[in-house]
Amino acid sequence: MENPIIIFGAGSLGQTALDIFQRNGVVVYGLLDDNKDLHGKEFGDISVLGETDDDGFLKLIGQKCEACVAIADARVRKRLVKLLNERRKVQPVNAIHETAIIAQSAGIGHGNLIAARVVVNPGAEVGQHCVIQSGAVIETGAKLGNYAHIGTGVLINSGVVLEEAVFVGTGATLVAGITVGKGARIGAGSVVVENVAAGATVFGNPAQKLQ
Ligand SMILES: CC(C)(COP(=O)(O)OP(=O)(O)OC[C@H]1O[C@@H](n2cnc3c(N)ncnc32)[C@H](O)[C@@H]1OP(=O)(O)O)[C@@H](O)C(=O)NCCC(=O)NCCS
Question: Domain 5-93, CATH 3.40.50.20 — does that match?
Answer without folding.
Answer: yes
